Each structure stands twice: as structure tokens, then as C-alpha cells.
User: Which sequence fits this backbone?
């Protein structure tokens, strides 16, 4: 009896040990093995039958971020292969963890021939590797391709590394930021579009307190924001206050935005909005999904961000509140200020060509030829809008997306975000819109260009910024939230700025200033 | 054959080795069964350890381990002089301590309680209900908490407000981070943790209880004098293993809870490794941190094991 018991004991102990150990192995955040989720390759690997052609189709493997949940089906890919005489393998990875995947693939030399990055910040971080000669310099070849040579010189300049071009860019309008608000609420309360930041504040207040939906319940809030200081409301608001974009020039020095008084003003503004309860209280922990839900459920009435979001916001909002109306607006200034809006450097992502995957010039040229074809209206439209008649129709010379937006999103969105150039250069159709707010938005986006606040450091370089910029930014991001939540006062925030300077920020300032003066 | 080998006169050393061979031969099936496990450890635990050398290098992915420059203990120096380091280590240790004090005893208590339940169906129902959360991912647990705790219409804050209280900023305040963490851990893992204890309790000889009852011991006496001593070694083994996991506080869980407001108390070694290593591509530095973490874990396990042995228990090795 006794023996049996101790045997049982031993067995259970062994089981525990193995359980414990296997649990350990599951959570090794520290090592470089790609996580199982990251190593699952794109699902669209099945090559489709290419029609017999004289020239062998070029085989190209492409890695890119995916902004929707599901990997798109092969509908578009099959057409694309026919048009470009290629055999494509698309490896889609979720955008949320794309940087991780990039780093892991890069570390193991597994980047495919065509590698999309995620955004400008990733690009900045890859500069070191680019300088280390890991990617093909494509500048000299562009001239050989009729369509590629149409790409905008000014934007190409923004993407150069040490004066050499390594990448193709995915073009985006300079400044899409602005305000989206509930027009029906404003009308109910007799408010017009806000002209100043004070009007905006008053609107948030009225939307919260004056029962804008007239249902007799205190169930509304002004602004819906999220935990993103850049693409959320904060940066756009800071532009309204006249804060520079990332860096500004003051007394011949390049200083970061948070050393300007306008940045503090913006924080104060957000703080008073939150303290008064005119925005969602937990915005520092709110995801984009939750933020969007606040607006779409008819709870919040203001959304500050990309004005192009208005379509999806509106479409989902009317499902909940059939009588809802929305409008967009851009020109908001602080009293006595002039209108300005932060701008991106004309692109939101780039494509790189790793040397580890592309063996020689001939192969590179074949791949560039594919991108050259992507810059023709036929291919650009296919990738951006889908198949005519299925995903879009042409109305008045513009592309009108099909009403089945789920289908369009599922089948086209994955490819849409990878089209290089912009409508002016790749000849893709402009979008047709029937929602007034969106038509306005497109108009405002063009207006914004004239008032764009550019980042003076976009064409400049700072080694410290490349290496530590992001890590240091965390200090400021945390301090900014803490200030807005009242955990830090002005002195505390300034102390955080000092910390930033000490840990390498001062070097960033010096390096950028030197580069700035040298470029003048 | 074996028998003929036995009587040979040989120096003691070779005698023991031949004895060893014999024993291995005798238990050959057991050894064969162990092969997959051994292979697993070699392939997935020992071979990757080679990668640890990059913590002593200025590792450049495209150069590989052989091509990167050696920098000695540079990364460790950086780690120990990093102003954030002390804070991160303290956070990690505090969360670990809380885990040990608040979480560890709960499955034991729960198992003892379940063991006393008489109606079998009720017992099984409760048992199933308390382990269901284990099968939900942290993302779900954290999202549920978010929905319940948010100040923008979360049910708990609404209740507090209804009873005239001041809304509490659970999600964004440093004070609430740790309680929130530990409650979530208990919620998800407590039920699961009872399985092993229940198994150990089931193995106790019922005769002991009968004898105790005849001697007039009540329920609490029985628990105290029979159940607890009987599962003591299981508790000790689990405790030692738990201590080995010191720094495994659940990266995913903490990462999901982190935000700008609670980073001061919430950043632990794992999340720091993730941001520094995978997001910012500082492979060598994050390997150094991971190395350091495992090292602390090893020391703690050895200490705990030593302590267990001194207290007359068996320990894990």
C-alpha cells in the first residue's frame, strides 16, 4: 500500500515537472525564436495556373502587413499574375505584430525578395541595416523603367538614405487629419462647425451635457479618443495649437515638439476636456476598436483623426442610429492663431529589396519590372479597387466601390495598401463618393496641403535618433499621458524632458541641428 | 551471459560500470521511452542555448554569430547601469511575491474545500466552473476586465457610482495595477491549480480518515492532521517549481495590461525584453536581459530546493 502511494506521488510529481517545464518553454519572451504565430506563413501560397506564355513568369515572393483579420483569397492575385506575367507568393502578416515579424525574419536572413516595411518609424529603424548594404540600391535602375521614373522626386528624396535610393514608396496624401462630428447633434443644439479650439471645447461640452440626441437621458459624451498620441486626437489638436510636427526650429536649433509651449497648451486642453468629463475617461487604455465603437454606437459625437475614416464610421453608425448625420471639418485654430496641420512626408510605407533574397541584378530588374507594371492604371486599379464590375464600378470617371463593403475589404484591402506611388503617378482612378462628409473631406485634404506643417527632420539624419529615438520617446509618451491625467505637473513634465535629454535626447538635438545647418 | 560476467574479479571501478550497464539493460524499455524526452531537451533547450553567446556580442543579424563583433560584458554593464533596471527588477520581484503570497495558497484551499463537498454532482460542477477560465486566453480575460472596469460605462464603476461612490480609475492608475493583475491570475488559474492537489488528496489512504474519525477528530482536525501532511511533498515540489518561474509572470498578461499610466509599476523584465528586443531590434541587449533573468531563476530554485531539503523534504532533485 505504502509503496503504491509513493509511486503515485512520484508519478504526479513527474507530471508536474513536465507540465511546469513545458509551460516555461511556452513563454520564453527573451529568445529569438520566432513565435509560432509569427512563423505561420501567408496562406495564399497556392500558385495558380499561369496561362502558357512565351516568357517564363517571374516568381516573386512578397511580404507585407495586413490590416484586416483574414488573409485575402486569390481573386486579385490571379488577375494580377495574368496582367504582369508573374507567379506571386504573398506572405501576409497581421499589421499589429508586423515589426516583430520583420525583425525576426531579418535576423534569420529570411526576408523575401520584396519586403514591405510597416511605416516611417520602421523605415528609420532599418536605416542602419540599409547602410550596412543589406538591401539593393535601386536609384540607378529607376530611369530604365518608364513608369517608375514618374514617381515624385520630392518624396523619393524623403526616402533616401545618405542620398541614395533603396526603396519605392507607397504614396499618401500629406495630411488627412481633421474632425469628424455628429451633424445632427450640432443641428439639434444650434451649433455650427467649430472655428476655434474654444468652439471645439464648447461643442464637446454641449455634446456631453445638453442631451444632443434629445432622448432625455444623460448618455452621451463629447470626444472619443484612443491610446495613440499620433493618429489619435492629440497630435492633430497640437497642430491646431501651432505645435511643430515632431521637431521644430527655434533659434537656429532643431528642438523636439515637446519642448515648445504649444505642446503644453495641447496637454492642458486635453486635460481639461478629460477632467470635465467631455471625453472618454479611459482614453489612455482605449484601443482603436473601442474608440470607433464609442462613436458608432452613438455615444460619442466627436472623432479627431483621419477624415477618410468617415465612410466606415458613418456606415456603422447608421446601423445603430438610423437618423444620424455626420460632417467633417478641418480648419480649427486656437484663438488668434493661423491654421496648420501636421503632414506626413508624402508616403506611409516603403518597399525594400533584400540582397539576401535577390541574388543578382537581372533578378532585381525583373522584380522592378513588376513594380513598373504596378504603376500602370490597369494594374494599379486592379490592386487598389479590385475587379471592375465585381468590386467597383466607374461612375463619372471615378471608381465607386461596391456596396458589399465586406467583400471588397476581404478581397481587396490586403493588396490595396501595397500599391506604390499615388493616383497622379500610377494612374489609378480617384474614388467616387456620394457621402457629403467624405466629399468635403477630400476637399479639406487638398486644403490641408497648403497649411501642412512639415517635419524639418524628414530629410535629415541623426544616428542617435535612429538607434534610440523610439526608446526615448517612451519617456515622453508616458509623461504626456501622466500630465493629462494629472499625475505630473508642469515641473514633473519638464523633468521628464530633462531625462529625455540626458539619456540621449541632447545628442539628437545636436545631431539634427548640425545636419540642418549643413543642409542650408 | 550476465551471470557469467558477474563473478569476474575486476577493480571496483569497472565493477560499478558493469553494474550500471546491467541495470540499464534491465530497464532498457524505460530508457527507450525516455529518448524522445531527452531529444526534446537537447534540441529545444540545449541547442538554442548556443544563441546566448550573442549577449556577449554586438550582434548584427545579417553578419550572423560568427561575423558579429565581441563586446564582452558591455550589454550586462548597460543593463545594470540602466536607470530603469532597478525599477523593472523591483516590479518583477513584487509581482512575484504577490503571486506567491496571494495566489499560491488559493488552489490548495480550493482543493481542500472541494474535497469536503459531499454531493458529487455539485463538486464536479464547481470544479468544472472554476477551471473553465484557464482555457480562455489572456486577451479575453483582459478584455473582459476592461469592459467591466472602464470608467466609460463599465459595470463596476457604474455600480460604485450608483451607490454614491467616486468612480475608480482601475485601468489607468498605478495603485490598481497589481491588485488587478493578481485578481486576474487567481480568476484564470486557481481552478486549474487544484487538479494536482485533488489528485494527491485522492491518493490518501481512506483508512487514515476512518481511524481519525473513530478517535473523534472533526473535519478540521482531519484536514490538519491527515490531508495537509499527506500532500505536503506535492505542495513543496510545486512551490519550488513556482519559484523557478519567478520571472515568468506571464508576458502576454502583463503586456496587455500595460499602458502609459501604469508602466512605472507594470513594466517587468519580460515586457522590457519584448520592447527592447523584438520591437526595437536590440537582439544582444535583450538576450543579456533574458540571460540575467534565467540566472536569477536558477539561483532561486537552488535556494528553495536546499531549503526544502533542510526541512526534511525531498526537493526536486
Assistant:
Amino acid at each position: 500500500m505504502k509503496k503504491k502511494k509513493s509511486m503515485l506521488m512520484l508519478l504526479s510529481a513527474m507530471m508536474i515537472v513536465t507540465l511546469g517545464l513545458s509551460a516555461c518553454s511556452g513563454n520564453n519572451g527573451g529568445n529569438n525564436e520566432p513565435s509560432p504565430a509569427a512563423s505561420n506563413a501567408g496562406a495564399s501560397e497556392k500558385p495558380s495556373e499561369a496561362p502558357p506564355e512565351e516568357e517564363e513568369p517571374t516568381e516573386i515572393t512578397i511580404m507585407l502587413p495586413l490590416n484586416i483579420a483574414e488573409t485575402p483569397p486569390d481573386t486579385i492575385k490571379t488577375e494580377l499574375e495574368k496582367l504582369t506575367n508573374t507567379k506571386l507568393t504573398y506572405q501576409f502578416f497581421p499589421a499589429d505584430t508586423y515589426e516583430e515579424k520583420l525583425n525576426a525574419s531579418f535576423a534569420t536572413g529570411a526576408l523575401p525578395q520584396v519586403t514591405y516595411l510597416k511605416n516611417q518609424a520602421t523605415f528609420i529603424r532599418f536605416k542602419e541595416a540599409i547602410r550596412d548594404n543589406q538591401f539593393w540600391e535601386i536609384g540607378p535602375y529607376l530611369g530604365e523603367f518608364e513608369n517608375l521614373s514618374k514617381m515624385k522626386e520630392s518624396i523619393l528624396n524623403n526616402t533616401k538614405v545618405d542620398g541614395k535610393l533603396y526603396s519605392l514608396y507607397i504614396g499618401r496624401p500629406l495630411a488627412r487629419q481633421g474632425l469628424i462630428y455628429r451633424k445632427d447633434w450640432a443641428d439639434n443644439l444650434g451649433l455650427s462647425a467649430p472655428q476655434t479650439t474654444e468652439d471645439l471645447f464648447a461643442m464637446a461640452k454641449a455634446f456631453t451635457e445638453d442631451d444632443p440626441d434629445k432622448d432625455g437621458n444623460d448618455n452621451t459624451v463629447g470626444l472619443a479618443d484612443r491610446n495613440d498620441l499620433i493618429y489619435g486626437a492629440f497630435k492633430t489638436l497640437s497642430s491646431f495649437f501651432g505645435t511643430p510636427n515632431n521637431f521644430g526650429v527655434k533659434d537656429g536649433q532643431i528642438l523636439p515638439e515637446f519642448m515648445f509651449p504649444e505642446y503644453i497648451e495641447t496637454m492642458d486642453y486635453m486635460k481639461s476636456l478629460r477632467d470635465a468629463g467631455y471625453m472618454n475617461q479611459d482614453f489612455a487604455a482605449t484601443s482603436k476598436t473601442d474608440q470607433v465603437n464609442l462613436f458608432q454606437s452613438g455615444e460619442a459625437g466627436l472623432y479627431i483623426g483621419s477624415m477618410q475614416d468617415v465612410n466606415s464610421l458613418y456606415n456603422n453608425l447608421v446601423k445603430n442610429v438610423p437618423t444620424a448625420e455626420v460632417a467633417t471639418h478641418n480648419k480649427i485654430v486656437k484663438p488668434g492663431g493661423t491654421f496648420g496641420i501636421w503632414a506626413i512626408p508624402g508616403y506611409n510605407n516603403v518597399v525594400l529589396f533584400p540582397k539576401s533574397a535577390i541574388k543578382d541584378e537581372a533578378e532585381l530588374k525583373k522584380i522592378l519590372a513588376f513594380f513598373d507594371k504596378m504603376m500602370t492604371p490597369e494594374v494599379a486599379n486592379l490592386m487598389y479597387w479590385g475587379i471592375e464590375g465585381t468590386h467597383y464600378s466607374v461612375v463619372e470617371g471615378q471608381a465607386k466601390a461596391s456596396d458589399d463593403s465586406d467583400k471588397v475589404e476581404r478581397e481587396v484591402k490586403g493588396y490595396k495598401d501595397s500599391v506604390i506611388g499615388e493616383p497622379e503617378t500610377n494612374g489609378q482612378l480617384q474614388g467616387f463618393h456620394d457621402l457629403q462628409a467624405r466629399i468635403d473631406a477630400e476637399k479639406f485634404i487638398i486644403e490641408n496641403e497648403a497649411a501642412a506643417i512639415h517635419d524639418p527632420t524628414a530629410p535629415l539624419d541623426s544616428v542617435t535618433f535612429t538607434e534610440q529615438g523610439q526608446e526615448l520617446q517612451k519617456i515622453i509618451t508616458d509623461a504626456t499621458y501622466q500630465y493629462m491625467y494629472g499625475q505630473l505637473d508642469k515641473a514633473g513634465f519638464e523633468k521628464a524632458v530633462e531625462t529625455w535629454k540626458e539619456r540621449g535626447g541632447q545628442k539628437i538635438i545636436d545631431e539634427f541641428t548640425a545636419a540642418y545647418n549643413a543642409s542650408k | 551471459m550476465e551471470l557469467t560476467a558477474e563473478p569476474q574479479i575486476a577493480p571496483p571501478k569497472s565493477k560499478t560500470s558493469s553494474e550500471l550497464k546491467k541495470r540499464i539493460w534491465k530497464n532498457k524499455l524505460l530508457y527507450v521511452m525516455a529518448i524522445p524526452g531527452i531529444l526534446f531537451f537537447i534540441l529545444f533547450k540545449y541547442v538554442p542555448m548556443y544563441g546566448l553567446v550573442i549577449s556577449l556580442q554586438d550582434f548584427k543579424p545579417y553578419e550572423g554569430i560568427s561575423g558579429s563583433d565581441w563586446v564582452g560584458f558591455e550589454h550586462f554593464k548597460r543593463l545594470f547601469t540602466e536607470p530603469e533596471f532597478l525599477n523593472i527588477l523591483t516590479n518583477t520581484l513584487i509581482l512575484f511575491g504577490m503571486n506567491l503570497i496571494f495566489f499560491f495558497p488559493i488552489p490548495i484551499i480550493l482543493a481542500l474545500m472541494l474535497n469536503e463537498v459531499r454531493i458529487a454532482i455539485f463538486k464536479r460542477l464547481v470544479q468544472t466552473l472554476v477551471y473553465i477560465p484557464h482555457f480562455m486566453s489572456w486577451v479575453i480575460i483582459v478584455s473582459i476586465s476592461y469592459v467591466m472596469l472602464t470608467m466609460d460605462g463599465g459595470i463596476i464603476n457604474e455600480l460604485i457610482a450608483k451607490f454614491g461612490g467616486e468612480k475608480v480609475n482601475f485601468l489607468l492608475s498605478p495603485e490598481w495595477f497589481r491588485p488587478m493583475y493578481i485578481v486576474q491570475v487567481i480568476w484564470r488559474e486557481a481552478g486549474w491549480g487544484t487538479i494536482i492537489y485533488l489528485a494527491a488528496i485522492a491518493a490518501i489512504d481512506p483508512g487514515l480518515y476512518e481511524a481519525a474519525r473513530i478517535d473523534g477528530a472533526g473535519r478540521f482536525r482531519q484536514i490538519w492532521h491527515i490531508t495537509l501532511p499527506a500532500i505536503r511533498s506535492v505542495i513543496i515540489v510545486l512551490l519550488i517549481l513556482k519559484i523557478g518561474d519567478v520571472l515568468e509572470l506571464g508576458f502576454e498578461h502583463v503586456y496587455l495590461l500595460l499602458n502609459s499610466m501604469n508602466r512605472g509599476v507594470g513594466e517587468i523584465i519580460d515586457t522590457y525584453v519584448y520592447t527592447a528586443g523584438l520591437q526595437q531590434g536590440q537582439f544582444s541587449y535583450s538576450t543579456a536581459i533574458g540571460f540575467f533573468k534565467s540566472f536569477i531563476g536558477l539561483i532561486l530554485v537552488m535556494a528553495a530546493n536546499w531549503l526544502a531539503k533542510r526541512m526534511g523534504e525531498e526537493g526536486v532533485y
Notes: The CA atoms of residues 150 and 171 of chain B lie 7 Å apart.
